């Protein structure tokens, strides 16, 4: 994993807007007999490869030092889609089938002290507190359209995505070579986030999470064995807090979260930490987020994950002030932070001077060499492509301004 040795490096959180051609091609794909596995064709694979090559070149031109494939290998069939980072896993896992259960619309589940349980997405505390806004199609909160339905585990789960991850790795490595870039990353789901679908097979939630750890480890290894960096996408670490109703104690919640961290570390065993980035966020939908758990309660849990870099939201109106957490938190030796410096949560494009100021704040508390400037969360499926380009451009400009000041 590169470090900011002579200038502030830039990256992003993973998802980037798909091209109209790629969205249309995904929309045109047919489903297998199971009703949720998207079938592919040589023509589609060729389109995907060309799109990734072009995307990496565009990232380089915008000043992104550590690019990725934009998650283009994760199907998105609509310009607005907040779930592609998760739903792709259904395509790569055996033991799943469609049932009547849907984690988005399922009935409420109530927790009690000492017994934390996830409720449905629709029963989230922020969603119910602002029910009128969430149900108003003109409010700007809509989550768009997922490419596939949500299945349920009805048998032992297994990794079946070998061909897909080999394709994603090959596409990114070819694109990096074409743009003369040395480092790139591919995102992969965490066991804790993956396990939030229906389960009719495993006896306990814990068994289900550990099963996902074994499944997803195969994807992590495929990425890192190829010499790339894997970014673990795990909003569940922070986002689950809002999905517990009523609000639990922080102590109960962190105990509930511990198994998710342990399972992830088990899945990462033996993988060099310098090839692992971890992404934490509070969910990327454009809602009020008044029930987000403060970063101060999560930072130690995040740092207990065996990664070399930690990506987190730090540029939006709910979490920008939390940079001060690092005044009282020691970043472990050899680790880097990858804070959000521009946000997916607003169409306003950050001024490069503001970008520079945000970078300099983090550099002042953890050291300039330990900061990689990034985005809060994925831009793809959340903001217009033209605005996403402008934000990445502002990120690059601001990083250059900050670098001039920090290395003068």
UniProtKB/TrEMBL annotation:
<keyword id="KW-0808">Transferase</keyword>
<dbReference type="Pfam" id="PF01717">
    <property type="entry name" value="Meth_synt_2"/>
</dbReference>
<dbReference type="InterPro" id="IPR038071">
    <property type="entry name" value="UROD/MetE-like_sf"/>
</dbReference>
<dbReference type="InterPro" id="IPR002629">
    <property type="entry name" value="Met_Synth_C/arc"/>
</dbReference>
<feature type="domain" description="Cobalamin-independent methionine synthase MetE C-terminal/archaeal">
    <location>
        <begin position="206"/>
        <end position="385"/>
    </location>
</feature>
<dbReference type="GO" id="GO:0009086">
    <property type="term" value="P:methionine biosynthetic process"/>
</dbReference>
<dbReference type="GO" id="GO:0003871">
    <property type="term" value="F:5-methyltetrahydropteroyltriglutamate-homocysteine S-methyltransferase activity"/>
</dbReference>
<dbReference type="GO" id="GO:0008270">
    <property type="term" value="F:zinc ion binding"/>
</dbReference>
<dbReference type="GO" id="GO:0032259">
    <property type="term" value="P:methylation"/>
</dbReference>
<protein>
    <submittedName>
        <fullName>5-methyltetrahydropteroyltriglutamate--homocysteine methyltransferase</fullName>
    </submittedName>
</protein>
<keyword id="KW-0489">Methyltransferase</keyword>
């Amino acid at each position: 994993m590169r470090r900011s040795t002579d200038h502030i490096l830039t990256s992003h959180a993973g998802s980037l807007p798909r091209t109209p051609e790629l969205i249309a091609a995904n929309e045109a794909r047919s489903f297998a007999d199971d009703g949720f596995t998207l079938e592919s064709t040589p023509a589609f694979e060729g389109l995907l490869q060309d799109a990734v090559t072009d995307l990496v070149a565009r990232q380089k031109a915008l000043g992104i030092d550590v690019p990725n494939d934009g998650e283009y290998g994760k199907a998105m069939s609509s310009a607005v889609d907040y779930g592609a980072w998760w739903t792709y896993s259904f395509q790569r896992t055996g033991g799943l089938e469609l049932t009547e259960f849907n984690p988005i619309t399922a009935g409420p589940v109530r927790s009690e002290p000492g017994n934390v349980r996830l409720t449905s997405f629709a029963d989230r505390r922020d969603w119910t507190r602002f029910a009128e806004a969430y149900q108003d199609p003109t409010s700007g909160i809509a989550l768009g359209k997922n490419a596939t339905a949500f299945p349920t585990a009805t048998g032992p789960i297994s990794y079946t995505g070998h061909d897909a991850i080999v394709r994603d790795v090959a596409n990114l490595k070819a694109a990096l070579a074409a743009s003369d870039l040395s480092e790139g990353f591919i995102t992969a789901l965490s066991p804790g986030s993956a396990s939030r679908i229906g389960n009719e097979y495993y006896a306990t939630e814990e068994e289900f999470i550990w099963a996902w750890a074994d499944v997803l480890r195969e994807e992590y290894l495929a990425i890192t064995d190829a010499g790339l960096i894997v970014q673990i996408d795990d909003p569940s670490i922070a986002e689950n807090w809002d999905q517990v109703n009523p609000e639990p104690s922080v102590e109960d919640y962190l105990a509930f979260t511990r198994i998710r961290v342990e399972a992830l570390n088990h899945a990462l065993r033996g993988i060099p930490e310098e090839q692992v980035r971890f992404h934490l966020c509070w969910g990327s939908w454009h809602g009020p987020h008044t029930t987000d758990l403060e970063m101060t309660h999560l930072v130690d849990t995040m740092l207990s994950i065996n990664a070399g870099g930690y990506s987190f939201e730090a540029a939006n109106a709910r979490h920008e002030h939390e940079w001060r957490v690092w005044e009282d938190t020691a970043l472990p030796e050899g680790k880097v932070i990858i804070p959000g410096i521009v946000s997916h949560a607003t169409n306003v494009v950050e001024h490069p001077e503001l970008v520079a100021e945000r970078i300099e704040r983090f550099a002042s508390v953890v050291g300039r060499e330990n900061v990689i400037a990034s985005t809060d969360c994925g831009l793809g499926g959340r903001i217009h492509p033209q605005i996403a380009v402008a934000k990445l451009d502002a990120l690059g400009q601001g990083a250059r301004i900050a670098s001039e000041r920090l290395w003068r």
